[in-house]
Amino acid sequence: MAFTYFFRDMHTLELIVKYVVPYVAGRSKIRVWDAGCAMGPEPYSLAIMFAESMGQFAFRNFRIEATDLDVSNSFGKIISEGAYKEEELKRIPQEYFNKYFRPDGTIGYFRVVDKIRNKVIYKRHDLLSLQTVGYGFSLIVCKNVLLHFQAAERVEVIRMFHAALAPGGYFAMEQTQKMPEEVSHLFEQMTSGGHLFRKIEGPR
Ligand SMILES: C[S@@+](CC[C@H](N)C(=O)[O-])C[C@H]1O[C@@H](n2cnc3c(N)ncnc32)[C@H](O)[C@@H]1O
After folding, report:
1. In this structure, which residue's CA is closest to atom 17 in ligand 1?
2. Ligand 1 atom closest to 41 (CA)
3. Could you give the CA distance from residue 128 to residue 155 in angstroms, rounded to a whole number?
4. SS3 call for 126
């Protein structure tokens, strides 16, 4: 089973809010791709952070396309139900837990509220197909996934992300990986301590 948890990397979530929320202001469509989303804690954490930082009106235009290889073919059901065991929810800041989770019918389970659940659309997808799930993304998040790939595969997957991003769109990747040299000219790093990058246009 894929390892993941809610609010796994608060530092990157906060960087995303700082840079991406002003970037998407005023857009009629705000598309986010969470690539390698596992069972849903990551896309739901992202949706909560955006709900907290955007106006209610702007949040209506927000969608996360959450994808995973999902060898067990079980993530779709888990994500669409949005119900998680109480122990899995312990790291969620109390204020967000109170606001965005409700007891589920099953004892010991809590469900993400519809306002957040409706924002996450799940699809099975293999990143190594090098086929994007769409274009014009404001943000692509791919964390704790790239380490599973060969160096050459990482380069090609990141090139695909670059093509899938809207002009000036953002890409967040895992802290443990360096941006490969072959693609570093395609992105600008937002802060030296964080793995948030902005797409640079120009020759590829
Ligand atoms: C360690 S989990 C990371 C989950 C989440 N991004 C996080 O950081 O908490 C790695 C995920 O990558 C997915 N994965 C591995 N290879 C993949 C591929 N080729 N295409 C899409 N997803 C893949 C796995 O199924 C797994 O859910």
Report:
1. 69
2. 9
3. 11
4. coil
